[in-house]
Amino acid sequence: MSSRPELQAPPEIFYDDTEARKYTSSSRIIDIQSKLSKRAVELLALPDDGIPRLLLDIGCGSGLSGETLTENGHQWIGLDISKSMLNIALEREVEGDLLLGDMGQGLGLRPGVIDGAISISAIQWLCNADKSSHDPKLRLKAFFTSMYGCLSRGARAVFQVYPENMAQHELILSFAMRAGFAGGVVVDYPHSTKKRKEYLVLTCGPPSLSTVVPKGKVELDSGSDYESSGDEENQTVCISDRHRPRKKQKITKKGKGKGWVLKKKEQMRRKGNVVPPDSKYTARKRKARF
Amino acid sequence: MRLLTHNMLSSNIKGVTNGFPLGIEVVKVVEKQVELNADFLKNMFHKIDWKGLVDGSRAMGYFELPGEPPETSALESEEFLSKFHHALLELHLEEGALVCPETGNICHFASTLRGFPS
Fold first, then answer.
1. Residues of A in contact with B8 (CB under 8 A)
2. DSSP three-state, residue B63
3. Distance between terminal CA atoms of chain A?
4. Would the CA dihedral through A159, B93, B31, B52 be positive or negative?
5. pLDDT beyond 90 at A265
């Protein structure tokens, strides 16, 4: 069975009472969610003047991401399709108001009133057709056009997504662009399979200086973050092309050699793993008696 | 649900051209104390549909707001700000329903179950 929850059941059924409880009591998930939402708020780039804004949290679930918004002093409205998740949010007494609704049917908000929107791991659910009446394209269109309508001019929307493959990725992006959004994708840690995170950073309004997409994060071997531009095309191809035949390993009588070891260490560093520094002893030959 | 959110919502039913403001059918209202932030209120004032807010607050049993939309200068008075703040952020519709103004039937955001409309 696939580990992707999207493939198992529709969201309102998958996140039932037990799953919702499990989700919110797992410290690992709480940690990931708060990290993702902190990064999303960072990408939202609201003016730093201390004035609280009215934000939207799409797929707010049990309000884990909303808590980050409250910590930043903003007012927020959360939308989710799962009643069980919202019940947990009510138990946790989150600050924002909660709406039960399906984002694929449009948002039903007045035009131009929202100062920004975030969404953590939710948009990819729109790509599934869980009912016979569902058409992913129509649902994406309804979502993005109503989103565009309710945002004020120049407002940003940051969606963290887990697209299943390149086709989904392009589908989501194309409907966002068709709705009138400017912007693009920010990829954090593009070389790592686990830490890699994609954010759709969309700006409401025509392309301008403010719509420039921020750079993604890349990890160095020392573990520190630094901002770096990533050549997105090259990075995504290696993901989509996962089923290519494995390269035959070149093993000669002499063993794999220093070059091979250095190459592997470099690969591990790019993934963000802790790797011992290279020295003159790296991959040295041992004496026969060893 | 607060009136802040009520003010942002409009009817989602197909074919409805002017789905705002939604009518409120009140079953239970609670009040929760929230810290007043004048900057936020000033920022929101231009986005709020005044008539919707006044109608909503009256439906929830709060009659202090003036019926006519006040001038921007009113935002300097603390008395007005505290009333505005109370109506916008402190009144919670705990149980009730939101009704579409055009079709009159209970609309997309219908019965308010434990604080969130469906």
1. 54, 77, 109-110, 113-114, 150
2. coil
3. 47
4. positive
5. yes
